[in-house]
What we know:
By secondary structure, the protein is an all-alpha fold. It has helices at residues 15-19, 32-43, 46-58, 73-78, 84-93. It is globular. The N and C termini lie far apart (42 Å).
Amino acid sequence: MRKDKSKVIDEQWDDARVKSFLAYRAHDGTPDDFHILLRAYQGMRAGDFARFLTFFAAEGRDLDARNGAGETVLDIVEGHRLGGPYAEALRAAGAGSGGTATA
């Protein structure tokens, strides 16, 4: 690690930072809801991701949005070795039920 870079451990994310992921948009034809969920999964710790899903669902967004290959974010997360807590959060929010969740 470079001397001018410090390692940040256990940084606390406020609601504004978590909600900021709702503003992401896909630029390749992928549905925005899929893109947003995937970016949140890739960029957040499991606890922050679970909080994010509350905001996502409150906006009536689609937890089961699919990419061009027909996969949902839950499908992708379930295939990852460390995806368990994220998959649980998605299911608890209503993913895999065929529609949007109610918060």
